[in-house]
From TrEMBL:
Keyword Magnesium: yes
InterPro entries per the UniProt record, alphabetical: PEP_COase, PEP_COase_bac/pln-type, PEP_COase_Lys_AS, PEPCASE_His_AS, Pyrv/PenolPyrv_kinase-like_dom
Reactions mediated catalytically: oxaloacetate + phosphate = phosphoenolpyruvate + hydrogencarbonate
EC nos: 4.1.1.31
Keyword entries, A-Z: Carbon dioxide fixation, Lyase, Magnesium
Transmembrane segments annotated in the record for this chain: none
Record's subunit section: Homotetramer.
Lineage of source species: Bacteria, Pseudomonadati, Pseudomonadota, Betaproteobacteria, Burkholderiales
Residues the record marks as active site: H155, K591
Name of the encoding gene: ppc
One example GO MF annotation: phosphoenolpyruvate carboxylase activity
Protein name, per record: Phosphoenolpyruvate carboxylase
PROSITE patterns on file: PEPCASE_1, PEPCASE_2
Family per similarity comment: Belongs to the PEPCase type 1 family.
Signal sequence coordinates: none
Amino acid sequence: MVNSSAAQENPPVLDKDAPLKEDIRLLGRLLGDVLRDQEGEAVFDVVETIRQTAVRFRREDDAQAGQDLTALLHKLTREQTISVVRAFSYFSHLANIAEDQHHIRRRRAHLLAGSAPQQGSVSFALSKLKAAGVGSDTVRTFFGDALIAPVLTAHPTEVQRKSILDAEHDIARLLAERDLPLTPRERVANMHLLHARIATLWQTRMLRYSKLTVADEIDNALSYYRITFLRELPGLYDDIEEEIAAHYPDDAHGAALDNDNSYVQMGSWIGGDRDGNPNVNAGTMQHALVRQATTILDFYLDEVHALGAELSISTLMVGASPALQALADASPDQSPHRSDEPYRRALIGIYARLAATARALGATNILRKEVGHAAPYLDATEFCTDLQVLADSLRANHGKLLVRPRLSTVQRAAAIFGFHLASLDMRQTSDVHERVLAELFAGAGVEADYTKLTEEQKVQLLLAELAQPRLLYSPYAELSDETASELAILRAAKDIRQRYGKRAIRNYIISHTETVSDLLEVLLLQKETGLLRARDKQLDAMVIPLFETIPDLQRAAGIMNEWMALPLVKELIAHQGQLQEVMLGYSDSNKDGGFLTSNWELYKAEIHLVKVFADAGVKLRLFHGRGGTVGRGGGPSYEAILAQPPGTVNGQIRLTEQGEIIASKFSNAEIGRRNLELLVAATLEASLMPHAAEGAKAKQLGGFEAIMAGLSERAYKAYRNLVYETPGFTDYFFSATPIAEIAELNLGSRPASRKSTKRIEDLRAIPWGFSWGQCRLLLPGWYGFGSAITQWIEEGERDEKIATLQAMFKEWPFFATLLSNMDMVLAKTDLAIASRYAGLVADVELRERIFKRIAAEHGTTLRCLEMITGAHERLAGNPLLARSIQNRFAYLDPLNHLQVELIHRHRALSGEAGKVDERVHRGIHLSINGVAAGLRNTG
């Protein structure tokens, strides 16, 4: 018995994670049942034995357990190996579903309890702003001018097939149902369906056996629109409008935001990003827009059809506006049964016009045939006008309540998505532009060898040519395939803008921007294809430099200063609303200079850009090319935006969402809505919260920045010395990680390397980071930090320097976010697992020499992090994430051990006989999928 008084003094602590544990146990049990049924009891027993041995190896650091595990794995037959890898991989996926559901559950509990707004919500941001004295006019101006754009990109770390995503979406829905009050019969039915869906998942092929095409990538991305963006974005707008009204109830201007101010818009690179991807061309761009338009028009058609069923309003009961009546009279629907139902007749007419529009824009499969013929809409604005007629008539005739459920959602969606759905960016590397123009200049007899000119000569020639009314291009000239393709792409962009609207394509990004001529070259190519009318100072696609490497970032402000000083460019920027975008690359700068230096050089580049743009009187919009893993700029978006230097956000921000991070953030509607809200809240707060940068605070920040510069220099040397200067490091990397096996996977349409070499310089940053994640070292997210801190401390008064670092952590958001992200990476890093991958290196001396250096730096980094933060456990400030990561290890560790065993077998066979065992090969690829799913942000 429990002593009642003692129980009152010490009430039981509720385990908030108990429902999560219950869900994971349930899904694990059902997977086990499927495994027994499909593969037999013997395979199930093998899986359980491996899991228990791996847990013992981790928890007890038991050398005997390590030997037992090696023996177990070595004895597995090929068939058993595949089953075991699949079991642990699917358990990773199911655990992710359970975690996502638990996040939703916790957030709902918080909202139902009426607790204070959560950090990261728009309500929380508005509360902070109001407390800081920011008025409603300022807030409304922000939403009137802001552009917040998540940009979906396809990259070769996306390991999910759409079939798997669909099955998992169904499992998530069924799991969520279990939180509802179900009858015993309903609960049994739910359990049967869950069991069946997991069995379906087991019988569904996890991997692609054919190369993923750009068209596949386009369709995969569009699935997230149907799951999340089409409904959640308009809903978020409604929520924000209500929050503003609640926080500023005395606002004389009223609560409603202008429906045309689409401050969150979607962007895409899929089909337009041809940097290093020979599979992207004019055809893929046109295909992308056809598919995008089909997706959004299907949505409009479904919603308008549903509205027609709902708005059964009769003029015998209530009036209608003359404009609404005119819209009804123009409808092809002349049925006498609906003569008194103008809303239905108007919607039948709108549906007919949408169907005609869909056909005109390339859609070929309209499920519901329209009543009669109607002219297509010229543009989305005409569609919006018709919807507004409906809304105005309802509001004027006692129908205000009927606007919100569906009509306002369609209105919001039309303003956000138009007929194009998402703005498609074009991207190409500067070297290609140079080659194309060299060919055009030579063919036109203007300059025999453009590539040999100095930068000054190039700029002079390009400006002179931009002033010429004639073209370099001749339809009678024979062009290389590359030049013909590049010109065709730009012509396709012009056609796309005419067909789908100006927002369909409006940006041209230049990879590896190193000079002003790199920017001018794209202006000239746009002139050649009608996208630039220099005489009218009209530019259709903004020219956006992408600064990627450390030297590029250091040159960024100087290049932009020269660019914005050019008279022609000044006029073009004026026509762009006195705004210019700059893209910053996180991935290549990290591969180039390491984690600490990359972050610091990005921060410095932003500060210098702010000053240059302020001096020029131009508004700066930064486009952050962030990846999934911390080594590529990943980590929580909310904290990342708030950690930006003052003056760099100002209501304008674009950022990439890449690889499996898209699935992690947006494959569940509620989690997707939360992630979209985080972006808005962070941008709002970063833009409008007053910055205390005067006097002592500014002096302190200046001191912190000086220290950071010194730390960066030391970290850069340590990182470069290991990666680029250590003899044999490249051989070590290609042996001790599954980079070669990753390159063979059908993960994306883009090759893993820019050139067919084994030079790290030529390797794309994405597979570089992905490989380190697979072997659980995650080296790009921490290496060099420990050396830098240790050297800096040893050069002065130790206690004083430690105190300064601790102050930087507490008082400087940039440094705090840096350390928080590194803390997360280190929580996922495991040297014991990594040592097994090191065993793949045949050269014992090389293996021991390099792994010893990495292990030493890891230990130093951990000690330095703990010294600065005061936390001796990883993720002490985020216990939920810490528990999540710890809970994953039991099924993630076996996948890593299996992967090492399979790579051993694969390389031994291919090395000795030049053969490939397809089952072993498949097992490696399955394990890559499972590890990526378990770590979640490794791409």
